[in-house]
Amino acid sequence: MPVDVQPDRVVLKHPKGASAEILFYGATVISWKSGSSANPEAAERLFVSSKAAFDGSKPVRGGIPVVFPCFGAPTHPEHSKLSQHGFARSEKWILENIVMDNEAGVSVRFALEPTATIQAKFERPFHLSYVVTLAEHQLSTALHVKNTALSSTSPLEFQALLHNYIRAPSNEVLVSPLQALSYYDKTEATEELRSTPKVETRASVDVKTFTDSVYENARGKYEIAWPSGTLEVRAHNFKDVVVWNPQKEAGSKIGDMEDGGWERYICVEPGYVRGFVKLDAGQTWIGQQALTVLN
Ligand SMILES: O=P(O)(O)OC[C@H]1O[C@@H](O)[C@H](O)[C@@H](O)[C@@H]1O
Asked: In order of start, what are the domains of the chain with their CATH numbers?
């Protein structure tokens, strides 16, 4: 069955062999197996820590958590009661419908609306939907944010990011093109240095040392390459991109990170995280990433 609805997750199977698993918890994609044109055998493309919890006790360490409505610690007054990266990744979503089920793609739509728990920390009305589409060599995920306020209230202000953990050897992987972009280096020791932009000089960026860089107004198309593979990340409406790998320095302090987990992934996260999307009442904003296995 191409769309298999299980108690805690939805499993998508593409007729050409690819598959994906999405938890209701956080609508977190926790597996994407895909081949490439050169090698059709389906292999796991995402990293999930063996210490990750799937039971709703904390956000999943790996896969693709959805970051909304704030990135990192909240900075907007309306987000002040939220925890790091907001609530979307730690709420139970519902399966709204099967969007498509054929060779072009197997696609499902999840939804999240305010619950009493969410309203206690975030008062704005909204409707989120998250469309996950599996094609032969591609996984795309799209976050639709609707401001459901009826009257002419002030716009809904939010940040959003799709926090992919791409399975790749972090000591060999390179990301491009980021050269000449300005970025904020979150590994710096002081707030002043963290909020002072740097300019990327490297043609290809590695993550051999602890990296937590927020590139702004980026190009929207990134290549992640290592000796035995290449994956492309394309972004739509996500003007920024975050490159993160904690290496041992920070990774060993993350409770649900498996030992050496930082050696097995890179995050190249499309987002709108510098400033806020401002969405008028009744309007919908869509941010999307498409991950394609090139080889
Ligand atoms: O531990 P969390 O909340 O899942 O966040 C992981 C990382 O997510 C990245 O997107 C941030 O840039 C990092 O600063 C952060 O450490």
From this structure: 3-294 (2.70.98.10)
